[in-house]
Automatic annotation (TrEMBL):
Pathway: Amino-acid biosynthesis; L-asparagine biosynthesis; L-asparagine from L-aspartate (L-Gln route): step 1/1
The protein's Enzyme Commission number: 6.3.5.4
Glutamine amidotransferase type-2 domain segment(s): 2-185
Protein name: Asparagine synthetase [glutamine-hydrolyzing]
Residues annotated to bind ATP: 231, 267, 341-342
Active site residues according to the UniProt entry: 2 (for gatase activity)
Cellular component, GO, one term: cytosol
Catalytic activity: L-aspartate + L-glutamine + ATP + H2O = L-asparagine + L-glutamate + AMP + diphosphate + H(+)
């Protein structure tokens, strides 16, 4: 993932302003250690910190159209860029960058082209002919993006909050699936799938359709000119990602350039559930497996750095980001610049344990819609920022636009947990890859119970965090919590501890408001707590809060 920073219409084109913008851009250098670029047009500044994944030699940014009237700075990957180039036969491309198509698509279609992009992206496009601009963010918010407003009338855009928080009177996260147009003077939604309206779908489940759609999503993410690997926790989602990647790896450019074996990576406390399961899956798939260990103290020592980079005080996100942050550093040290991961599956399939309590298929479906819409503040934020902290890119095939449409169009009755029929969470995904002739995974891995990532790395991790927080937050401090933090009041000492660290780095009110709040059990939304009256007394965001809801014997024939 790259880093972008843009200052638009600040009424100051002095050398001092340019120097200040460059200084702020350097706060994002961890995201793009390969190259820095800056473009200035009057009082418009576009900066880019590049992590080179596709076309490392000539794809430096900003990018332009033929006469350089259209200027673009982009963070992301456009997976269908080759097809889009073919649809632009009258345009001359300067680089092999997958993102250059954005400038030419704007020439052809004006502002109505964003839905043509298949990929993950945040970009700022400046049309120097009239000084108009557009800003856009990908459908789900896999790339991070913030927008802010200065007292001088300027608009600021940055990949991370730290690029603009000291300069803006107000700032907020840029909404996923939206476009900001200077001509229109505001936001407009460009991503409008059927599930956004929470209409209940009725398409019957077809396991082969689901399987082929996921394989297609994985294959398109093999687009890279640099070494890559897979994150492998040994759970269902990461194991399927690894299995499908391994099947198609030999035909990829990376295999031809960097060797025929896929690399896999895992982290955990000594003896954690993930390490053992990941080792078994890696052996089964024949990957070159890299297993890393961390101690509770290692994680605690990293907490401040983690919160600085992920820019949130949400408890579940901090818990899960810390081991991922530590793992990303290890991966980057091996020369790997991109990894494929399993985020998003639990949201689209209803895979969290609390979904066992969904009262009907309508509520089940609506909760998946709510979870997808919130991903950019939780798992997407974690995956993006904890890896970008070390200049590592993460790709997430479960959140492929086409694949989401396939999954969210299935009658949710098929997704419901049904103990009498032996259906555990994500049964339709498990069944789609239950191939007797060419097994994707061992049966017991394919039907392994869901673990929250922060639980799977080792149960002592969360307990250690709580103990550490209790040493730093007193009972007296908790008694005054609602007065110190009236918005999103910390409900626990752990939450209070993270909030103190966050506000030291990001003291502005706007920063505080970018973080979601509300009650949660086992990663649920606040609405889903209504499904079980007992949950209101056990508001632990860890997956352990819902353990015991699906202890059933899954028959061998599934």
């Amino acid at each position: 993932m790259c880093g972008i920073l843009a200052v638009l219409g600040c009424s100051d084109d002095s050398q001092a302003k340019r120097a200040r913008v460059l200084e702020l851009s350097r706060r994002l250098k961890h995201r793009g250690p390969d190259w820095s670029g800056m473009y200035q047009h009057g009082d418009f500044y576009l900066c880019h910190q590049r992590l080179a994944i596709v076309d490392p030699a000539s794809g430096d940014q900003p990018l332009y159209n033929e006469d350089k009237a259209i200027v673009v700075t982009v963070n992301g990957e456009i997976y269908n860029h080759e097809d889009l180039r073919k649809r632009l036969p009258n345009h001359r491309f300067r680089t092999g960058s997958d993102c250059e198509v954005i400038a030419h698509l704007y020439e052809e279609h004006g502002e109505d082209f964003v839905d043509l992009l298949d990929g993950i992206f945040s970009f700022v496009l400046l049309d120097t002919r009239d000084n108009s601009f557009i800003v856009a963010r990908d459908a789900i918010g896999i790339t991070s993006l913030y927008i802010g407003w200065g007292l001088d009338g300027s608009i600021w855009v940055a990949s991370e909050m730290k690029g603009l928080n000291d300069e803006c009177e107000h700032f907020e996260y840029f909404p996923p699936g939206h476009l900001y147009s200077s001509k229109q003077g505001g936001f407009q939604r460009w991503y409008n799938p059927a599930w956004i309206s929470e209409t209940i779908p009725s398409t019957p489940y077809d396991p082969l359709v689901l399987r082929h759609a996921f394989e297609k999503a994985v294959i398109k993410r093999l687009m890279t000119d640099v070494p890559f690997g897979v994150l492998l926790s040994g759970g269902l989602d990461s194991s399927l990602v690894a299995s499908v990647t391994a099947r198609h790896f030999a035909a990829s450019k990376a295999a031809k350039n960097w060797g025929p074996q896929l690399h896999s990576f895992c982290i955990g406390l000594e003896g954690s559930p993930d390490l053992e399961a990941a080792r078994e899956v890696a052996d089964y798939l024949g990957t070159i497996h890299h297993e890393f260990h961390f101690s509770v103290q290692d994680g605690i020592d990293a907490i401040e750095d983690v919160i600085y980079h992920i820019e949130t005080y949400d408890v579940t996100t901090v818990r899960a980001s810390t081991p991922m942050f530590l793992l990303a550093r290890k991966i980057k040290s091996l020369g790997v610049k991109m990894v494929i991961s399993g985020e998003g599956s639990d949201e689209i399939f209803g895979g969290y344990l609390y979904f066992h309590k969904a009262p009907n298929k309508e509520e089940f479906h609506r909760e998946t819609c709510r979870k997808i819409n919130a991903l950019h503040q939780y798992d997407c934020l974690r995956a993006n920022k904890s890896t970008s902290a070390w200049g590592l890119e993460v790709r997430v095939p479960f959140l492929d636009k086409e694949f989401i449409n396939v999954v969210m169009d299935i009658d949710p009755e098929w997704k419901m947990i049904n103990k009498s029929q032996g259906r555990i969470e994500k049964w339709i995904l498990r069944k789609a890859f239950d191939d007797e002739e060419r097994p994707y995974l061992p049966k017991h891995i394919l039907y392994r119970q869901k673990e929250q990532f922060s639980d799977g790395v080792g149960y002592d991790w969360i307990d250690g965090l709580k103990e550490h927080a209790a040493e730093n937050v007193t009972d007296k401090m908790m008694l005054q919590a609602e007065h110190i933090y009236p918005h999103n009041t910390p409900p626990s000492k752990e939450a209070y501890y993270y909030r103190m660290i966050f506000e030291r780095f990001f003291p502005q009110k706007s920063a505080m408001l970018t973080v979601p709040g509300g009650a949660s059990v086992a990663c649920s939304t606040a609405k889903a707590i209504e499904w079980d009256s007992n949950w209101s007394n056990n508001l632990d965001p860890s997956g352990r809060a819902a353990l015991g809801v699906h202890l059933l014997n899954v028959p061998n024939n599934h």
